[in-house]
Amino acid sequence: MSATTTLLQATQSEAVTAIENDVLLSSSLWANVALAGLAILLFVYMGRNVEAPRAKLIWGATLMIPLVSISSYLGLLSGLTVGFIEMPAGHALAGEEVMSQWGRYLTWALSTPMILLALGLLADVDIGDLFVVIAADIGMCVTGLAAALITSSYGLRWAFYLVSCAFFLVVLYAILVEWPQSATAAGTDEIFGTLRALTVVLWLGYPIIWAVGIEGLALVQSVGLTSWGYSALDIGAKYLFAFLLLRWVAANQDVVGQPSLDTHSEGTAPADD
């Protein structure tokens, strides 16, 4: 037990040193800490007058995005959610020890469901459909984490990567095919279309970076460059997305105020004002 504890402490200490010595890597993390902090303050201010029940739910989900992010990036900077793994045979860096920012996957498993929840509430989708899509999203993140951490087999890394992509397809189908119809019925199709395009384009970047980065084919072997790729996507997919959504919701509470998710339930009718 003591040997294991010592190893974990040494690894965490080494991770902090490695991050501090890599300007590209550390800047990619600190930039998001700063932006997440500013986003939290801004979103609290922007949501000060939000009162409609569904609008408040959207605001709450939106606020959770930078709250999760700032915690995650501080975890990476502290070395708490960073480790070193030895790449398996078949990998371009087989036998070499590389840094794994596995904490990013935990962040995505918590923040991306909030993004989908906010989108689903905006489009007023059926609550059962929303649950299925969020479950698929969490499955995508968990299998992505497995793909990043497996050291026993290069083939299994890619197997989990493909499973993760399969979950991603479920999410994409809902966002691109099913939810736009609900958004049109709810009268939020214009802003939904903008946020859908932003989400789909940026989310497609994550599996691409994984594939070409150090975790996949290692065509790009710089941990700092890969980290900036993920961080840049996070900036657009989280803070920009959340800002655009909250700004629209705050100005259009009469639209998102009704109907609510409950109106999709059988036998439920909107109340008379």
TrEMBL record:
It comes from the Archaea. One of its GO terms (molecular function) is photoreceptor activity. One of its GO terms (cellular component) is membrane. Keywords: Chromophore, Membrane, Photoreceptor protein, Receptor, Retinal protein, Sensory transduction, Transmembrane, Transmembrane helix. The keyword Transmembrane helix applies. The chain crosses the membrane at residues 25-45, 57-85, 105-123, 130-152, 158-176, 197-221, 227-246. InterPro entries: Arc/bac/fun_rhodopsins (IPR001425), Rhodopsin_retinal_BS (IPR018229). It is found in: Membrane. Its main location: membrane. The keyword Transmembrane applies. One of its GO terms (biological process) is phototransduction. It is a multi-pass membrane protein. Belongs to the archaeal/bacterial/fungal opsin family. This is Rhodopsin. It comes from Halomicrobium mukohataei (strain ATCC 700874 / DSM 12286 / JCM 9738 / NCIMB 13541).
